[in-house]
Amino acid sequence: MLFPLPKFSGSANPNRVVVTGAGIVTVLGTGWKINSEGFRIGRTAFRPVTLFDVSQQRSKIAAEADLPEELPATKLSPNSIRRLNRASKMLLHAAHEAWSQAGWQSQENLPVILGSTSGEMSLGEKYVRQALKSPPSKRQQPTRIRHYQVQQQGLDLCNAFDFHGPVTTISNACASGANAIGHAFEMLLGGRAEKVLTGGYDALCQLTFAGFDSLKALSPTPCRPFHAQRDGLTLGEGAAVLTLETLEHARNRNAEILGEIIGYGATTDTHHLTQPHPEGNAAFAAMTAACACANISPEQIDYVNAHGTATPQNDATESAAINRWAGVSAKSLPVSSTKSGIGHLLGAAGAVEAVVCLMALREQFLPPQMSPGKIDPACHFQIVREPAEGKIEIALSNSFGFGGANASLIFRRWK
Amino acid sequence: MKVQSPKSKVQSREKDGGIFVQGLGAVSPAGWGVAALCDALKRDLPLPTYSLARPGWEKPLQVRAVPPPVSHPAFFSHPRLRRANSIAQYTVAATLEALGGDVAKIQAGELRLGIVVCVMAGCVNYSRRFYEEVLRDPATASPLIFPETVFNAPASHLAAFLGTSVASYTLVGDDGTFLQGLALAAQWLADDKMDACVVVGAEETDWIVADAMKLFQRDAIHSAGAGAVLLKKNPDGALAELSAVTDSFPFTQTQTRADAARKMRAQLPEAAPDELICGGEMRKILGEAFVASAAWRCVVACESIRQKEFGALNVGVVGANQQAIGSRFLACSEAVQVTGSAQTIGA
What we know:
By secondary structure, chain A is of the alpha/beta class. Chain A has 13 helices and 16 strands. In chain A, strands 1, 2, 5, 6, 7, 8, 9, 10, 11, 13, 15 and 16 form a 12-stranded mixed beta sheet that branches. Chain B folds into 2 domains: 214 residues, Peroxisomal Thiolase, Chain A, domain 1, CATH 3.40.47.10; 106 residues, no CATH class. In chain B, the strands form 2 sheets. In chain B, strands 1, 2, 5, 6, 7, 9, 10, 11, 12, 13 and 14 form an 11-stranded mixed beta sheet that branches. In chain B, helix 2 packs across helix 5. Chain B starts with 18 loop residues before the first strand and ends with a strand. At the A-B interface, helix 4, helix 5, helix 6, strand 6 and helix 7 of A face helix 4, helix 5, strand 6, helix 6 and helix 7 of B.
């Protein structure tokens, strides 16, 4: 039953929640290793958009991912494989890596909690184009309708690994991935599941690209988070999937543990549909709530992976929130936005950046942002601008979205 | 709709530790309010349809649209809602009805309200309009429309109108997602994350959705609106109790739709076949509005319990393309004299 949920844990104490598998796809490549190498040196990988026509847009670049030609071996039927499109493929690659790493087996009932802003929107776009151009033609239209919807990508995962989840998709704009992981964390924390497959994904599509361009939110040049002269974001695409389980469950099966999730905070900024409150009240509240959940203070955080979109408003707001939240410890707090290398992945951003935090914790490095230029003096914290080793025990990741959806996640190194 | 078969009394129950329905709201082709929705179902006659032009076709599509409100709601003039899409207006209207007197408490910061908005097609009207603008000339596509295309725009407008900064999730999926939303809200309340949580299922009409629906159900008539259920842990004055939400049984390669529906029903107490309130009957009257339709079923179930027509009602949803999922609502009073027994509002 989803309600009342069965309690898997007999203990009155909250469970500890650990990550036993992580899969990632970004413009840097497919898989932990190549992405970790890229994030370690702050590699940037923006290029001209080829997926759709951007000739009439202000911005003409994005972080388009090159996907492997072969899909991983799964239990998907040939017909299902044939119908997979870009977002589904990225999600499947990430899920396969996480699933394989975790060593999970097919089972009857495994919750899937995903975040996405647009699912397989490129199929929705094709549907509209055909409906407008050739109204009587229904060729491929039913397939497009079925497969553009977000629930289909979750069902594809059930079929790929042969389990029957409840599939939940959270669409909280750019915080979707973080909210999905946070929700999964809370289920495990409260003893309402023993393991959850979670993550986020989004592929580049014309509607979203044109939308951000219409808002003049896209930079014509590679984005420069927290820079004094920043002028907008650069879109990217990708997916990240985590296998989360209770510590007890992971230990019982001798699973390798990649890291621990210890805190989650989610709040709503009611200031404006697309603009955050100038003082970052809700962002501050999300970070504060995550710390309270983790029972730690901001001084204990060794690295912040900022939302850092590089829009003038987001970065000003986030700076104000981090300054206020970190207080006197801000001046020595390492912060970076890995969007400087891979762009803004929207619904996938929170999940991908969660994996970046796990990489930093596991491999003990501070992910730099290599964009040149002067940092905004409003940032009282230390922007990581060069590749660096670091002693990182606890990392916090911020995700703030349209509509005021704010989420912060806190991860701890597993030793 | 025909229900009724006087049979049993609801059993005495323990009220503590439950999750209770404290308010209901609806916007539907029947009008703005739960009363209009229930009246239309009682009349048991299909509501009138309206023509919706479809590019490239001489014959328009028929939809059951939400009629204009009898009087202009005050919230329409809120800065966040003046230009908002209709799905946001339905969401806010249904929520305000469900909240009743709690609105002032929320706005005064005395009641922490969580928000779960559930959609399938979502903000499709502005999405289609914006994309058409992009196809015509992306350089001039409207920056006013794009933000309204985002799935969580209705939840954001609602939170802004109420001034609540507590967590707000937008869930996207098929009809059954509304019941997932109920389970999520119940979990939040059980964990004391908030004092109350409103769960809204909402959809809006557009030719692109009505056109797409015809590919799967030739006779279906697209409709729109919202249903809202306000949940609290407090049983005082409750309309009904949320007793259970079944597992979500997805439609997969190895679990057919029929399998999923059977497993869902197996988790709900049985109801006699002659006592079913079929989703199909509701569709004939109101049309098909995906997640909003599932929300209306829950609203009607709770309202029927409040009216003491039933002691318990099951709502089973076999969704469009994702899952079979059910929920069960109970009367709150310890020994309510009822005219009906356990029912299932089926898929």
